[in-house]
Amino acid sequence: MSFYPQPLLNYQRRSTSGLTVDFPLLNVLGFACYTTYTGALLFNRSIRKEYATRHPTSPEPTVRVNDFAFALHALVICIVTYTQFWSSLWRFQQLEGKRASRVVQGIFCGSIASLAVVALMAAGSSRDLAGLKTWSAIDVVSSHGRMATKLSLNRPGIRSVICEACGHLRQICPSSMA
């Protein structure tokens, strides 16, 4: 339920005034990673087999359908909120200068790049003495799960970095965020 108030308020006001684009953008990335992670562990047989091989004492992933449903639902709502910054799409009031900060652009691009590196390492991985790949698809899926967690846990830290980068920590951010 916590996802609904912001896009509804934006729609009601026909504006994204007062909302920064940074956090909806990071939310889209975080929930895309979480949806990929939960979906792969829930529905992909080869990923589930690799999981069982790596975790012989508990071969069944703990991801359930409700985890995937939550992730997918959150992703859709976050995409709706993010697209509301495209005022022509929603016929909202045109606001100038609504773009992600350079810090968030760096975090976003760095996150995508790190996921790509893991995927390339898995794709080009060789086999060890036991015949198992040293990097495999489960590593790509796990990196998506870790990325989702990092983006979720670091929001207060990201907020502080953004404020410090702007050089206006005391003017922009309330003292509870510092």
Task: Tag the structure with descriptive keywords.
mainly alpha, 178 residues, disordered C terminus, 9 helices, elongated
Please describe the topology of this protein.
Blueprint: H1 5-13, H2 22-43, H3 45-54, H4 65-83, H5 87-90, H6 102-123, H7 137-153, H8 155-166, H9 169-172
Describe the structure in your own words.
Helix 2 (22-43) packs parallel to helix 6. The chain has helices at residues 5-13, 22-43, 45-54, 65-83, 87-90, 102-123, 137-153, 155-166, 169-172. The model is unreliable at 168-172 and 174-178 (pLDDT under 50). It has one domain (5-177). 67% of the residues lie in helices and 0% in strands. It starts with a helix and ends in a 6-residue tail after the last helix. The radius of gyration is 19 Å and the shape is elongated. It has 178 residues and is mainly α.
User: Mean pLDDT, rounded to whole units?
Assistant: 84
Radius of gyration: 19 Å
Q: Tell me the number of helical segments per DSSP (H or I, 4 or more residues long).
A: 9
Mass-distribution shape: elongated
User: In terms of structural class, how would the helical and strand content be classed?
Assistant: mainly alpha
Tell how many strands the DSSP assignment holds: 0
In total, how many domains does the architecture comprise?
Answer: 1
> What is the helix/strand order?
HHHHHHHHH
Poorly predicted spans: 168-172, 174-178
- Helical residues, percent: 55-70%
What profile does the largest beta sheet have? none
Distance between the termini: 27 Å
In terms of DSSP E residues, the strand content is under 5%
